[in-house]
From TrEMBL:
Belongs to the ycf20 family. This is DUF565 domain-containing protein. The chain crosses the membrane at residues 30-51, 57-75. Keywords: Membrane, Transmembrane, Transmembrane helix. The lineage of its organism: Bacteria, Bacillati, Cyanobacteriota, Cyanophyceae, Leptolyngbyales.
Length: 110
């Protein structure tokens, strides 16, 4: 790529954001927000699919495929990819979504 001003600006911004989240407390808080957002997304998907009562199987299939793809990407790579912030954010989002679906299943089962 050419070294334009826009390219330099984007590079500087991404470097600053990367340095911002090198702090362990900020990184942990961002991962916690991702976990809670995944919990929210899982609850919203199960509630919406359950309300329409037509897309239950399709929504479940999409969530299973999405979960498996994320797991394959995160856990089959080297430690460098596994420790990157975007990979950890997507993985914690997946964990929150899965946890939400388990909680909804327990609520419906009792």
């Amino acid at each position: 790529m050419q070294n334009t001003r826009l390219n330099g600006l984007l590079g500087a911004v991404t470097d600053q954001i990367g340095q911002l989240f090198q702090n362990p407390w900020r990184r942990t808080s961002l991962l916690l927000i991702s976990l809670l957002f995944g919990f929210y997304v899982g609850t919203a998907i199960s509630t919406t699919a359950g309300q329409m009562a037509q897309l239950d199987i399709v929504a479940a299939a999409i969530l299973v495929v999405l979960t498996e793809v994320i797991s394959r990407v995160v856990y089959s790579r080297s430690d460098r990819v596994r420790r990157s912030l975007p990979a950890e954010l997507i993985n914690t989002l997946k964990i929150g979504m899965t946890y939400s679906l388990f909680i909804d299943a327990f609520k419906l089962g009792s």
